[in-house]
């Protein structure tokens, strides 16, 4: 963009007025804010549902999955996102924490371990028979719903009151310029896809000889496959906001390919919870879905990053 | 690795032309520090090996304590090498044998009843190979009558494809020296009696000879693994050759290692998660209560490679042209920002270390509701996260980059996907 000499001179004289980057602005207005608004509405319904929370939990969990890639700024303050969602849980900390809380009868969850809070803990209480026997299960579900809603509201409020302007305008300590704010949004797409490929799909797949259906995300409620679908839709929405027309044309067929696989899997016994990874005749369909997402990740890395002029940088999944 | 392993690697396409500082010299310093760090790790592991031999030959409270002291000393240089992991495949592919964590220690030896049995994730979580010379794994009978380095490395490590089945390396040895830390959030480390290695009727908790065999095999394996890695960084070694082969790739290795260790690994996986789970088992060295030092020397390793200076275990230093010199030549303000942030991180990690050494155990810091402990640990986390942002800025200055993702053919070779 060329800045006219007059404009530059005026800018030097006038107090600095921050200008929003149009792409980041669109990502905030058309993706981030409405998606968190939907989460707040769904968690409000979850609170209202009280003990009969199955359907309301499913809806709220899906709304969380749709923002689960937006892990920066308001979600990271006071560990809000971790309190909403602790998964994967390789050492079984969630059921352990819940059994302990129910045995103690202590439902003040605001200072509890993240393993005993959020959507994944609620899934155990609602869908796992091991927790039906406790007297306090219903009260704990209610307490966790309140906690989840409070965190969702805190994130939304923080976005509206503070962070939306920060990332739109840049020129501050967090985002020095628009390249840095654009990088943040771009990074979220890649990190989200990486999480689906490496956790939501690779964990249950295990190896051909040793598939691991019990490592699927939210298998108790049968949400494993739908989570992949919901996340893909949300990530596609954001990617299309960032991409120009040429890259849109490359993204669309890959997303369609992934959705074809998801639709085929959803028709099959053991598709919803991905337990069909144990079935050699169907397992390859999960692998094909994973490959479609890997190919999409490549397009984003090779085409979208350079188009935006940003590098992906580091994310929280780096490391083991 | 079995699972898709997606780690960010920064590929720098065009390093800037620098007037004075030669990139090749910066890379040579980086390789020299690696060689010295792994050589120091090897030397201290050999001291540990001698102490373990002495413990087994003449079990006593004193010989057990000597072995523990040697283990603690061996961690000082080793943790400073962790900054070499994520940028160098040759280190990352090897590291799992040496420093894998967290572990289901019941695989190895006896544990307290509160530990529980097999879990959904791990059928072998309570196997106790010390007490069981044969066992069944996925329907197959396994012969563990001889506990050798080959058995630990080839059959028991990551058995059944479970990463928590850590059979080798520093943390397996740590468990065999200290035992479980049963103090919960209280002070105090594991308290294994020396008689766990005693002969005949003095033997406590059974199978003292097999426990000694295990300790000996794991320690010998650690030494041979470190010998191998030291050679990779010596003149003519593969790791050194790889770093020196290409200026852009070499700088990318340095920055990738600094950023990935700072953010995803130490700040995330090892520090923040422990605070949020309030779990004293979520300590990198949970048996020895040495976690404050683990974090401290990880942070120091990052600072070392940026400043191009490493202080060896004998007090001598390895120094040379550094990334700091390179960045400072182009953007002095950015170099200053990086140095300030690295120093701030070391101060935060130093506060954790001094509190722990003065009696405020890392376990206590992790307890729910312990605001001072949480503030200490989160101070370290925030500093690591903050320095990662500046590392990203350096990536942008040193060379316009794009991204490659390791571990998948289609990702490593993006062109192949479009053919």
Give a structural overview.
The complex is a heterodimer of chains A (about 325) and B (about 425). Chain A has helices at about 5-15, 20-50, 55-65, 80-85, 95-105, 120-125, 135-170, 180-205, 225-240, 245-265, 280-310. Chain A is an all-alpha fold. Chain A has two domains: about 20-170, M75 peptidase, HXXE motif (A middle domain of Talin 1), CATH 1.20.1420; about 180-305, Four Helix Bundle (Hemerythrin (Met), subunit A) (Up-down Bundle), CATH 1.20.120. In chain A, helix 8 (about 180-205) runs antiparallel to helix 11. The longest helix of chain A has about 35 residues, at about 135-170. The radius of gyration of chain A is 21 Å and the shape is globular. By secondary structure, chain B is mainly α. Residues about 1-10 and about 400-419 of chain B have low confidence and may be disordered. Chain B is built from 15 helices and six strands. The radius of gyration of chain B is 22 Å and the shape is globular. Chain B has a two-stranded antiparallel sheet with strand order 1-6. In chain B, strands 2-3 form a two-stranded antiparallel ribbon. Chain B has a two-stranded antiparallel sheet with strand order 4-5. In chain B, a hairpin with a 2-residue loop joins strand 2 (about 135) and strand 3 (about 140-145). The longest helix of chain B has about 35 residues, at about 25-55. Classes of the chains: A mainly alpha (about 325), B mainly alpha (about 425). At the A-B interface, helix 8 and helix 11 of A face helix 8, helix 13 and strand 6 of B.
């Amino acid at each position: 963009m060329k800045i006219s000499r007059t404009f530059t001179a005026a800018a030097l004289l006038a107090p600095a007025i921050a200008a929003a980057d149009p792409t980041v602005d669109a990502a905030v207005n058309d993706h981030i804010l409405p998606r968190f608004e939907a989460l707040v509405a769904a968690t409000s319904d979850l609170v209202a549902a009280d003990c009969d929370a199955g359907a309301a939990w499913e809806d709220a969990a899906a709304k969380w999955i749709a923002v689960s890639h937006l892990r920066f700024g308001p979600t990271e303050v006071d560990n809000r996102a971790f309190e909403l969602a602790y998964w994967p849980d390789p050492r079984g900390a969630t059921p352990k924490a819940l059994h302990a809380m129910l045995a103690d009868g202590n439902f003040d969850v605001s200072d509890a371990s993240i393993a005993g809070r959020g959507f994944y803990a609620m899934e155990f209480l609602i869908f796992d028979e091991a927790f039906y026997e406790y007297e306090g299960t219903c009260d704990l579900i209610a307490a966790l719903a309140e906690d989840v809603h409070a965190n969702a509201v805190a994130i939304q409020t923080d976005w509206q009151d503070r962070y939306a302007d920060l990332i739109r305008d840049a020129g501050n300590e967090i985002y020095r310029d628009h390249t840095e704010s654009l990088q943040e949004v771009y990074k979220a797409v890649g990190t989200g896809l990486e999480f689906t490929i490496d956790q939501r799909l690779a964990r249950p797949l295990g190896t051909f000889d040793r598939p691991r259906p019990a490592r699927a995300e939210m298998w108790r409620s049968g949400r494993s496959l739908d989570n992949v679908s919901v996340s893909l839709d949300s990530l596609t929405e954001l990617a299309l906001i960032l991409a120009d027309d040429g890259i849109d044309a490359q993204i669309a067929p890959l997303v369609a390919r992934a959705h074809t696989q998801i639709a085929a899997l959803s028709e099959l016994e053991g598709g919803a919870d991905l337990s069909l990874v144990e079935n050699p005749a169907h397992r390859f369909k999960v692998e094909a879905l994973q490959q479609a997402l890997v190919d999409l990740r490549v397009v984003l890395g090779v085409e979208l990053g350079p188009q935006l002029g940003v590098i992906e940088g580091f994310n929280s999944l780096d490391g083991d | 690795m079995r699972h898709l392993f997606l780690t960010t690697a920064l590929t720098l396409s065009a390093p800037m032309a620098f007037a004075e500082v030669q990139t090749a010299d910066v890379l040579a310093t980086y390789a020299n520090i690696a060689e010295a760090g792994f050589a120091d790790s090897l030397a201290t592991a050999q001291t540990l090996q001698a102490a373990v031999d002495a413990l087994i030959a003449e079990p006593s409270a004193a010989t057990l304590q000597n072995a523990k002291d040697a283990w603690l000393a061996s961690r000082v240089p080793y943790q400073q090498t962790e900054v070499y992991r994520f940028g160098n495949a040759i280190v990352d592919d090897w590291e799992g044998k040496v420093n894998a964590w967290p572990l289901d220690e019941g695989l190895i030896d006896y544990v307290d009843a509160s530990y529980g049995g097999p879990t959904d994730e791990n059928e072998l979580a309570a196997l106790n190979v010390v007490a069981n010379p044969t066992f069944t794994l996925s329907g197959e009978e396994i012969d563990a009558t001889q506990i050798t380095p080959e058995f630990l490395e080839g059959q028991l490590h990551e058995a059944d494809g479970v990463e928590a089945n850590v059979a080798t390396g520093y943390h397996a040895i740590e468990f065999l020296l200290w035992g479980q830390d049963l103090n919960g959030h209280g002070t105090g480390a594991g308290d294994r009696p020396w008689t766990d290695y005693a002969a005949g009727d003095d033997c406590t908790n059974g199978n003292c000879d097999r426990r000694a065999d295990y300790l000996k095999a794991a320690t010998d394996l650690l030494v041979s693994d470190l010998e191998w890695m030291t050679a990779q960084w010596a003149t003519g070694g593969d790791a050194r050759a790889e770093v020196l082969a290409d200026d852009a790739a070499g700088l990318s290795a340095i920055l990738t290692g600094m950023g990935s260790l700072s953010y995803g690994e130490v700040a995330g996986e090892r520090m923040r998660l422990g605070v949020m789970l309030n779990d004293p088992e979520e300590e990198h060295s949970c048996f020895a209560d040495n976690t404050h030092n683990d974090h401290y020397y990880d942070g120091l390793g990052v600072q070392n490679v940026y400043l191009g200076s490493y202080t060896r275990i004998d007090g001598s230093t390895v120094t040379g042209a550094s990334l700091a010199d390179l960045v400072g030549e182009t953007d002095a303000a950015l170099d200053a920002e990086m140095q300030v942030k690295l120093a701030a991180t070391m101060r935060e990690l130093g506060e954790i270390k001094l509190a722990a050494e003065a009696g405020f155990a890392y376990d206590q810091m992790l307890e729910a509701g312990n605001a001072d402990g949480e503030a200490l640990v989160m101070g370290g986390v925030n500093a690591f996260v903050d320095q990662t942002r500046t590392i990203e800025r350096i990536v942008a200055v040193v060379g316009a980059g794009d991204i490659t993702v390791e571990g998948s053919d289609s990702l490593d070779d993006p062109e192949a996907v479009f053919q």
